[in-house]
Amino acid sequence: MNPNQSTIHIVSANLGRWLGSELPAPVADAARAYLRTHDPDKRLRGIWVTAFGEDLHLHLSTFNGDFPSGQNPMDFIADLALDAALTALAKGFEMGLSAAANGTNPLRLSGAARAEALDLRRLDYPFTERGAEPVFIAKALNGSWGFFNRAVFNLYFNPDKGSGHRIEGNDFLAVVESVADLKAGKADVRTFEFGPAEGNELLALVTDPDEWRLSAVYAVKGRFGEGKFKDEPAALVAGGRNPVMIGRGQSGLPAVGEFTQAVGEFYFGPGGQDGGYRVGLVPATFAEAHCNSSPDGVAKVVAYAFQSYDKGRIPEGTDVVDVFAQNPPETRFLQREAMRLIRHMTTHGEFEPYLNAATAVGRAELTAEKLGSRFKPIPDGADPVVTAANKRAAFTVSDIKADSGGRVGHTTTPGHFGPVADASLQEAKQAGLIFGTSEFIAVGDDGHLLMSHKHGADNNVIHLFAYKTFFRQVWVAEVLGYKWYGLGQDLVGDASAGKKTEELAGLTEQFVALLPNYLPEAEQRRYGELRAAFDKWKTGQGEGRTPAPPFSGNVSGQGPGFAELPMPRAAPVGLFAMDKTGPAAFNLPVWEALRRCRIDGSLNRYLEGSDARGVVLEIWDVERHRRIFLDVESEAEAAQRLLGATDKFNVKRVWTRTADWNPAPSPLPLSPGRERGEKDVPLSPGGERGRGEGVEALLGDVLLAASTEKLAVITGGEYRGKDDPVLLAVEPLANAVNLFMRDRFYMTQGDGRGSHNMFPAPLPFGQAIATVNSRAVSVSAMITLDAKGEIRALRDVFADAAYDEARDRASRLNKAIWDAHGGNFSPVGVGASKVEQSYPLAKMIARITAKGSPYESKRKQGK
Description:
The chain is α+β, with helices and mostly antiparallel strands. It has four domains: 1-127, GMP Synthetase, Chain A, domain 3; 130-356 and 826-863, no CATH class; 358-384 and 568-810, no CATH class; 399-538, no CATH class. It is built from 27 helices and 30 strands. It is elongated and about 100 Å long. The chain starts with 5 loop residues before the first strand and ends in a 14-residue tail after the last helix.
């Protein structure tokens, strides 16, 4: 123990759970009086006591030189602080305060049980006092373990946020701990450290504050890092609930203003109930922090600063600075800006990313277990419920889409793709396969084949035709030598292995003869090359072309996606499509659309005169290849819990219900494989996997369908997850989705490299192109159909000026949230489990955290 070293001890006790959310002044006074009267040897150098939210906040300081050899100041503080907190609690009870309906009174407990009942948390910050010692302390009320990651990173490792690298010439080392180990109370917490040259490794962990906490910073270069204080921490963070950050300032360390910026400027971090939400940083004064900090989505951050003197003493009175009370106009501005963004986050309800992924998945999996045998395997062949819907249909509307390649990266479809598809569509029209008004639509770099026909949904002939059409685009590019980015991206994979492009494209004399009528001028001039290549392949003079692996920088071979709506009668149909988003992008819009339709009655009016008795959601468990049907009215909570875990459960269809809902009875036991931790589905009593009670017989017409799956010709029925989804819906639901996009803001996975959560801006066709950082885009159309099923009109919904404000909102909020998180920290950057596995991040994290890692640290912070 260094005899010249002082220690600041921050002790937090949750008295609010016993006395109420706002602690009156006499409670803190009682703790303060106890501390002053129970230190006969005057070993407390500093006493500062207040109430922040539900916490009694004790700031105590000691100087090692005041303690005789063999006495540990930590033990002294532990006993004294606990007794002070119990005294304060007794004062509250004496005043008649009581909030806990259940639980044993901590005053009647002993030993460790008392500290546990008070949720006692502590941070011990050792330091040697310099000539002038500015100390800065911040506390995040309603925050959780990794809440301060972004703030600490900005302070010490982000040159754009005033860490003083240029001015001071300093460098720092970061200590990172496993949140899971901290939560579990493990004695041996996985701890890693990263020096100045290991910024990528540091970012790989700390940008996911639900998994890792940036717990300590040490200077390694500069006046502080190379002098006598180099072994003392520049900053520490501790606490799982209402965490505390403490740091020293000046002389090679951040200035007080830099601390204020770091903990005052907005970002989202973990917090809320059990740390399961994304809460936004809102700076707060002492007075504001005295009140309960439980508003949805808010983490009040209170901060104070002082000049330590006389080996650790804290000044009394106004010389302890209430940081955010000093400049009220500035603080109010920061608060308004924070609340502007928080309000949009909380409108996600119980969906990611407001709910963090682990919490969302945990709730969804628990719900799935309770539902038991209601889950059934997704049919690998013909789907009986779809077959039944086809029999009720007069015709079917299909949108089948694929990314077959892009110009200059993943931007737009090449110029010849549309004309090649038009020629293929014309061949299908002449053959009577599809109706005459089907067409090709481009959404970003995705090509969509919008068709109407009489073959029903999930028809292999229609799907195979679409697959061939997309490969025809590839064939033209290969013959002409075009090097489009990601050529055949969704197509070239396992399903195409060992086959030639000509075979996959299903080239015919009729198609090749139609091509010159549609090709753009540049390709028309080279039509002879296309004709010659076809003739050579047809006559067996050449073996054909083998599709080259796509040069795309991401996952290929995912296959075309599709949405199909069997229509029992002619009625308007809404088309909704996105580019640069993940397969779950429709979960929240569809959920909110159903809620709106229930409120305004529009869906009931649409269904008048039909046999519909209600509405049913078809939800897919995309990892276990199973599905469930849930009644929207009576099972709304279960449906919401499933859909909230957007990476695991996706909307597939919305159905009408034709009779009273009578789902399967009680949940069934899990299969032996599931009990061993394997991903499996429950077994029915007879042992048949996922049999259940046949609610499918109650299903009527399809009201909405989304591209949760891919063409079976690609995957043989196996789900892999289809990006850039498309949705078809009847008019009331489509209108409700459009209004959601007009009036709301939500974040879904996609954006730059598919690794960020952002809002897909509503844009007109032709302008829906991902430009700045490949930001996600969406389009919408209302399709008019005649009685025969012919497409008679297609109205570009988002071209309306009514969506101008929504576009501005998207750009404004996307930029603000991106900038606040540096494009890396969650909820903007998604966790490693959701990043495309072709990227090195997952491998880097595995390398960092492996046993025997060179980044393992012996500096255990904990607490």
